[in-house]
């Protein structure tokens, strides 16, 4: 008898009660495809001399495949890296007000480009224009999908085939290979570098200005710091020079904030309001970094310049949808109540969290982590840590924190990589970092309300 004849048929497997349940959960097309693939794989394995799996094994394979296909690629994780605004983990976590606004906008039709008062066509920027002007002191505002797009759009609109003067020490590169010279070129503008890496003076800008100059531009170095013998031209002096020459003065803040962070013990970061007050005609900044909102690029400043930018055909290609605008509006409204901002804005809440809270969380969670790692040759201890803000924001500043250090016993260093991989394989992946011979789990971004879920999640820990 041909041993392949013992292999269950596709129809037989599909009629099995367990597979019928999978079909009801995942759909007939998906389960049928998985059953056919499982049978075909078993047939090929048998021809290679391997034993035939029984029906139960085939059904288990189909179930595992269906579960894998149903698992979202965009999954929640526990961010224990110590980087609050982690680019690869989605940057700023949104406050509940923004989440509720996004859900409401997704669920129902909304007045995105409809003027309820007149019954005519509206402008989607009007949803946040008033709030942004109120919070920055600008005359007008517009929103695109991220700050790189904002910079590209303003350059393409105002400096196409013209020159843009920038200090050499501000020609930044950020993650994802966003480099100022490349963006200038793609936008159709010509970069004119002035000064040196560490020192640029007002006369450098003055001497570089020609009839082909479109603007003077300042780029905030939010992801690095030059220290020592340095000099940068103050914003008000650059603004005065630009206006003397009949030119706009533009500032790219990158990771912008709308509040003075010093009131919560964080280092000062320039704000759009400060830039506008110093004479800037346009300021661009991100929505999903220090601002604590959704991914967006915000442009605020002169009404005339904003109007020109909004007429650029590329604006439509770079605009944001109703979900982003709903979240952004909700976040901006929180800034109207600065006294409670650090309690309501999730990103700021995490940045200002006192060290003793993370220490207490570590003490509560230590038994669960020790139990999960009990069979492995490692030591687990609570240690002080230093978090970082992330996403190019305040790069040299660190925040005192607390968490766990997992260290191998003896010379079994490979065990850390296995543990790190196993933590990523949990139902809700746990993302830490390996540093100086230890796997570190920083608890700054683990909310008190998530501790029970985190401990329960560790019950699924398996390290091969």
Give a nutshell description of this structure.
The chain is an alpha/beta fold and about 475 residues long. It contains 19 helices and 15 strands. The radius of gyration is 28 Å and the shape is globular.
Find the count of extended strands (DSSP E, 2+ residues): 15
Mean pLDDT: 92
- The total of helices stands at 19
What top-tier CATH class of the largest domain fits best? Alpha Beta
Question: Oligomer, anyone?
Answer: single chain
Architecture per CATH nomenclature, i.e. the level-2 architecture of the largest domain: 3-Layer(aba) Sandwich
Structural Rg: 28 Å
Question: Could you state the CATH homologous superfamily of the largest domain?
Answer: Type I PLP-dependent aspartate aminotransferase-like (Major domain)
Q: Biggest sheet: strands, sense, closure?
A: 7 strands, mixed
Which stretches are low in confidence, meaning pLDDT under 50 for 5 or more residues running? none
How many structural domains are formed by the residues?
Answer: 3
What is the topology, as strand order, of the major beta sheet? 2-10-9-8-7-3-6
Helix content: 40-55%
Strand % is: 15-25%
Give the class from helix and strand content and strand pairing: alpha/beta
């Amino acid at each position: 008898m041909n041993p392949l004849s013992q292999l269950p048929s596709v129809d037989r497997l599909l009629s099995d009660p367990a597979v019928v349940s999978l079909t009801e959960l995942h759909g007939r097309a998906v389960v049928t495809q998985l059953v056919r693939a499982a049978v075909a794989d078993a047939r090929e394995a048998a021809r290679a001399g391997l034993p035939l799996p029984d029906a139960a094994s085939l059904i288990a394979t189909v179930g595992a495949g269906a579960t894998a296909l149903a698992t979202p690629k965009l999954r929640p994780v526990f961010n224990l890296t110590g980087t609050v605004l982690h680019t690869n983990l989605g940057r700023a976590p949104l406050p509940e007000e923004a989440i509720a606004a996004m859900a409401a906008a997704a669920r129902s039709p909304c007045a995105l480009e409809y003027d309820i008062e007149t019954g005519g066509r509206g402008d989607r920027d009007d949803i946040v224009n008033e709030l942004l002007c109120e919070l920055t002191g600008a005359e007008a505002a517009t929103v695109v999908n991220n700050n790189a797009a904002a910079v590209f759009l303003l350059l393409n609109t105002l400096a196409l085939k013209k020159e843009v003067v920038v200090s050499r020490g501000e020609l930044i590169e950020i993650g994802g290979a966003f480099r100022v010279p490349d963006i200038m070129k793609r936008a159709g503008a010509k970069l004119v570098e002035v000064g040196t890496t560490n020192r640029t003076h007002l006369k450098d800008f003055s001497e570089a200005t020609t009839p082909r100059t479109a603007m003077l531009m300042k780029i905030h170095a939010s992801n690095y710091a030059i220290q020592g013998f340095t000099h940068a031209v103050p914003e008000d002096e650059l603004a005065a020079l630009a206006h003397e020459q009949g030119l706009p003065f533009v500032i790219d803040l990158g990771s912008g904030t709308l509040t003075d962070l010093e009131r919560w013990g964080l280092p000062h970061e320039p704000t759009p309001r400060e830039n506008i007050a110093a004479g800037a005609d346009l300021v661009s900044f991100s929505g999903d970094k220090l601002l604590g909102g959704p991914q967006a690029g915000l442009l605020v400043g002169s009404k005339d310049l904003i109007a020109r930018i909004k007429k650029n055909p590329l604006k439509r290609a770079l605009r944001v949808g109703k979900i982003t605008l709903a979240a952004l509006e909700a976040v901006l409204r929180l800034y109207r109540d600065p006294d409670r901002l650090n309690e309501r804005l999730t990103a700021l809440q995490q940045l200002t969290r006192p060290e003793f809270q993370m220490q207490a969380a570590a003490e509560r969670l230590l038994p669960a982590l020790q139990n999960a790692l009990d069979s492995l040759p490692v030591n687990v201890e609570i240690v002080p840590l230093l978090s970082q803000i992330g996403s190019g924001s305040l790069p040299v500043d660190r925040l005192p924190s607390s968490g766990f250090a997992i260290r191998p016993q003896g010379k079994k260093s490979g065990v850390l990589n296995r543990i790190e991989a196993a933590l990523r394989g949990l139902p809700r992946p746990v993302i830490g970092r390996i540093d100086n011979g230890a796997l570190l789990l920083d608890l700054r971004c683990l909310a008190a309300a998530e501790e029970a879920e985190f401990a329960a999640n560790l019950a699924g820990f398996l390290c091969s």
